[in-house]
Specification:
By secondary structure, the protein is of the alpha+beta class. The chain has a domain of about 45 residues. It is about 15% helix and about 30% strand. The chain has one helix and four strands, in the order βαβββ. Strands 1, 2, 3 and 4 form a four-stranded antiparallel sheet that branches. The protein is flat, with a radius of gyration of 15 Å. The two termini are about 15 Å apart.
């Protein structure tokens, strides 16, 4: 299986929020997700997705329909020197 990647940045819509430019709004359905934290530069995020996918078979879960997402907190910051940042990777799952 190929490791999934994000199709965009997802935001929680707040009252009065109006997307502009390249920012859009998409509803993400409920359900179970396998999530893991990531910290590092964007060049390494693919490896975190691969690690999550590799973990699934032994966990009793498998990918489910739905888009995998990356969650960036309100306090998102990127280190100017290293390009490192933190986020949470989430993939919809269902029992094997």
């Amino acid at each position: 299986m190929n490791a999934p990647g994000p199709t965009g940045l997802f935001l929680v819509q707040e009252t009065g929020f109006r997307p502009e430019g390249e920012i859009g709004v998409q509803t993400v359905g409920g359900g179970r997700d396998a999530c893991t934290g990531f910290s590092g530069p964007s060049t390494e995020i693919h490896l975190a997705w691969v690690k999550l996918c590799d973990w699934l078979p032994d966990s009793g879960w498998q990918p489910a329909d739905g888009a995998p997402i990356e969650i960036y907190g309100r306090d998102f910051a990127m280190d100017e020197k290293t390009g490192a940042f933190s986020c949470t990777l989430c993939m919809p799952v269902r029992p094997i």
